[in-house]
Amino acid sequence: MIAVVKVAGQQYKVEKDQTLYVPHLDGNAGDKVELEALLVEANGQLSVGSSVKSKVHAEIIDHVKGDTVIAYKQKRRKGFRKKKGHRTEYTKIKVTSIA
């Protein structure tokens, strides 16, 4: 069974027992979340849009930070330098069921 879910404006193709990193979700580790299913394929039957009756359940495993991204700006011969960095927050989830 395969489903396409929408999480924080992004779409992910998921299967049962799959773990993936999605943009930060509210909740603590161990909490259950229900994801919006856009497309579900089961036993050769494809349901899309408003005909989707299945629900995708997932469990929050952990909250993690991504790699450091550096934004560096400089204007030559002016003595202007600016260096900033950030680490994007992600949530690690595990798809428990597609029903």
Question: Could you please describe the fold and organization of this structure?
Answer:
By secondary structure, this protein is an all-beta fold. The chain has one domain. It is 0% helix and 72% strand. It has strands spanning 2-7, 10-15, 19-23, 32-42, 45-48, 56-75, 80-98. Strands 1, 2, 3, 4, 5, 6 and 7 form a 7-stranded antiparallel beta sheet that branches. A hairpin with a 2-residue loop joins strand 4 (32-42) and strand 5 (45-48). The chain is elongated.
Radius of gyration: 19 Å
Low-confidence stretches at least 5 residues in length (pLDDT < 50)?
none
Number of strands: 7
Please state the overall shape, judged from the principal axes of the Cα atoms.
elongated
Roughly what is the average pLDDT, rounded to an integer? Answer: 94
Order of helices and strands: EEEEEEE
User: Count the helices. How many?
Assistant: 0
Largest sheet: 7 strands, antiparallel
Q: Proportion of β residues? A: over 45%
**How many structural domains?**
1
Terminal Cα separation, in Å? 9 Å
Give the helix proportion (percent range). under 10%
- Alpha-beta content class: mainly beta
Which descriptors would you attach to this protein?
99 residues; 7-stranded antiparallel sheet; mainly beta; 0% helix; single chain
In short:
The protein has 99 residues and is mostly beta strands. The chain has one domain.
List the helices and strands and how they pair.
Elements: E1 2-7, E2 10-15, E3 19-23, E4 32-42, E5 45-48, E6 56-75, E7 80-98
Antiparallel strand pairs: 1-2, 1-4, 3-7, 4-5, 4-6, 6-7
